[in-house]
Amino acid sequence: MKRKHFFHEEDSHPVQLTSADIMLRQQLEYSISRYFYEGCDRNIQDLLSNCRWYVTTDVSTLTLVIECPDQVTNWRVLQKLVTMAALLQQIVSSAKIRVCPPKSQGMPFEMRVDELSVYRDLA
Q1: Among 51, 55, 56, 61, which is most buried by a count of CB atoms within 10 Å?
Q2: Which of the two residues, 96 and 61, has the higher pLDDT score?
Q3: What is the DSSP annotation of 45-69?
Q4: pLDDT tens-digit readout, 98-108
Q5: Rg of the chain over all Cα atoms, to the nearest angstrom
């Protein structure tokens, strides 16, 4: 008895990203970063300018990564996290924010923007 396959052989292997895919992803990350930054108030923009921050995407999740230079800045970023998450959620409904303290000074804190209601009461 012969089996019929309803997919092509190449469909069963992971797809290799092309340079066009990579370029489109970078353009998307850049556009979201710019839109996010322009939507922030002056205080958050100033705070972000003291950090290394960027938007990155993996398989299905967009992540705003904020790397803080010192503990004081890290604390100030965490205090503004709910505001930043609310803005990011307006742009992308499924995203995360990862706040990274200086190296060897703690673990990164991560929250999903769809968890925002849990944190709103704390703000």
Answers
A1: 55
A2: 96
A3: HHHHHTSEEEEEE-SS-EEEEEE-S
A4: 999 998 888 99
A5: 19
